[in-house]
Amino acid sequence: MSDKRSELIIERGDILSLTARDLILALNAELSSRYPEDGACHFRLDADEVAEGRGAFLVAYQGEKAIGCGAVRRTEEGTGELKRMYVCLEERCRGVGRAILDALEVEAKKLRIHKLLLETGIRNPEAIALYERAGFSRIPAFGEYIGSPISVCMAKEL
Question: Which structural domains are found in the chain, ordered by start?
Fold first, then answer.
């Protein structure tokens, strides 16, 4: 039996594009439903933070359809942070998230990032499991997440 699904393609995208906007709006809606508390969600990621040489914003496509995204930004020399990881609900559990994560690690290495940090939420067990399977470990909260009771911070040496 052959798989009629198109090949998964992950490529650099423009965070200011309509494609990126639609993916990020879907991500924000999901996060807001999981975390309705005031000030619970940290959505900031500026275009200059993912510009060539500083970071990357990647989009995953199945055929012509954008089905996921993720970003990496350098935060300081040798350290970067993963941001805006998202896969459309109907495409989850098919390896798309791991493929985006792997592609972001490649981008991080190109940027000479040796340590990746990330933040996810306590109500994202599938994301936590993905990151743990990929070699991330829990760390104390960092940056804007310090003091957030709903944040789970993780790190990985590349």
Answer: 8-113 (3.40.630.30)
Q: Kindly report the pTM of this predicted structure.
A: 0.92
The edge-to-edge listing of strands for the beta sheet with 8-12 is 8-12, 55-62, 65-76, 79-87, 115-121, 151-157, 137-139
**Phi, psi angles (nearest 5°) of residue 103:** -65, -35
Cβ within 8 Å of residue 91, ≥6 positions away: 62, 67, 68
How far apart are alpha carbons 39 and 24 in whole angstroms? Answer: 18
Pairing of strands 79-87, 65-76: antiparallel
Asked if residues 33 and 40 have their Cβ atoms less than 8 Å apart, the reply is no
pLDDT along the chain (158 residues), means of 10: 70 97 93 82 82 96 96 97 96 96 98 97 95 98 91 97
